[in-house]
Specification:
GO molecular function: catalytic activity
Structural class: alpha/beta
Strand content: 5-15%
Radius of gyration: 20 Å
Number of strands: 10
Oligomer: single chain
InterPro entries: Pyrv/PenolPyrv_kinase-like_dom, Pyrv_kinase-like_dom_sf
Strand order of the largest sheet: 3-4-5-6-7-8-9-10
Distance between the termini: 40 Å
Protein name: PEP-utilising enzyme C-terminal domain-containing protein
Largest sheet: 8 strands, parallel, barrel
Helix content: 40-55%
């Protein structure tokens, strides 16, 4: 589409800078820039519990600065708006595609295995069922990475509601998912392909909970693909708009990015739902910016696209939206960005008279 091509062209013109976790940065980051292979050169070891951010190659860059006014990104939520085959010689994606992994559990074959595993007691039968789930998840991950959306994907960690009170089962399922994802990445690399895989920890209630989820993801990545990949993988937090504000700020301190997920299950939210989402997003964003001014925060869900103008106004980095909403959202975002930059230029010109 013309709007998306213009967004990609603008991104390719701008210089890059690494995304840092420093709360001292005063300039909000803008465009996403997809880099090459996910595995960089060997990284320095971590010190204590603090994740190292310095002295990494440019392919760890997640965002780019865009001059006077950061662009507002319109990214893909789901795989329905792009062709399955990977285009030959196509342009690099302007940003990642959000993949909600719970949708994988709805596939008939995997749903049957998952139901069997849920009702089975701990023991050999449960282990066999989980092993079969792993192979099905690996097939889903391989299909994703072989598609156009696999160039750069942000995948949510599985967190089905029926496992909310079954911590050991949830951990086992997430471990199988992560191993399946990283095994698919390794196979893709052996075939000479390029892909980028980032992850979203679902609904952490506190910074300590997110830190534990992040450590778990990095541990599995380290064991499966090595420390270099674990250091390169960006790990964000998927949080609800009604999340506790102080907790959201502390999570932002250690997360690579945040995604506010509003009304994800609604195909056509009511008008007041979008207004409520903006109000909640503004409160969360204010709490986040107090702790980390340069934090990268996106919105997702059916309420995000209808509220695009307001989300742009309060300073979000962009939205993830579905195929049906994407064309209009791209055009609106381009218009808002152009108007804002013209205002800045006019103000600067007037001040120089």
């Amino acid at each position: 589409m013309k709007g998306e091509r213009q967004q990609q062209d603008q991104i390719q013109k701008n210089g890059e800078r690494p995304l840092k976790n420093s709360a001292d940065e005063q300039v909000r980051e803008g465009d996403l820039a997809r880099k090459g292979p996910a595995v960089p050169s060997p990284a320095e070891p971590e010190v204590g519990s603090v994740r190292r951010e310095a002295a990494l190659p440019l392919n760890r860059t997640y965002f780019k600065r865009t001059g006077l006014q950061p662009s507002f990104l319109v990214l893909r939520d789901g795989r329905n708006d792009r062709p399955a085959p990977r285009p030959e010689g196509g342009t690099m994606p302007a940003g990642p595609c959000l993949i909600r992994s719970e949708e994988w559990l709805l596939a008939p074959e995997l749903a049957s295995l998952y139901d069997s595993w849920l009702v089975s007691e701990n023991g050999p039968a449960a282990d066999r069922a989980l092993q079969r789930i792993y192979y099905r998840l690996r097939a889903e991950a391989a299909e994703l990475l072989e598609s156009a959306d696999g160039d750069w994907a942000v995948v949510t960690l599985l967190s089905p509601p029926e496992l909310a009170g079954r911590r050991s089962r949830l951990t086992a399922l997430q471990d199988a998912q992560l191993e399946a994802l990283f095994a698919a990445v390794a196979e893709r690399q052996r075939q000479g392909g390029e892909c980028r895989l980032d992850l979203l920890a679902p609904s952490p209630a506190s910074a300590a909970e997110f830190a534990a989820q992040r450590e778990f993801i990095e541990e599995v990545a380290d064991q499966t693909l090595g420390h270099a990949f674990a250091a390169a993988c960006r790990i964000g937090a998927l949080i609800a708009p009604d999340a506790e504000r102080a907790a959201a700020g502390e999570i932002a301190r250690i997360a690579d990015f945040l995604v506010l997920d509003g009304a994800a299950g609604e195909a056509a939210p009511e008008e007041n739902a979008a207004q409520d989402f903006v109000a909640a997003a503004g409160q969360v964003l204010a709490a986040v910016r107090r702790v980390r001014p340069a934090a990268v925060v996106f919105a997702a869900g059916a309420a995000a696209a209808p509220a695009l103008a307001d989300l742009y106004e309060i300073g979000l980095s962009g939205i993830f939206c579905s195929a049906g909403q994407r064309t209009e959202a791209l055009l609106r975002a381009a218009c808002l960005t152009w108007i804002a930059r013209q205002d800045i230029m006019d103000t600067a010109a007037g001040g120089g008279l």
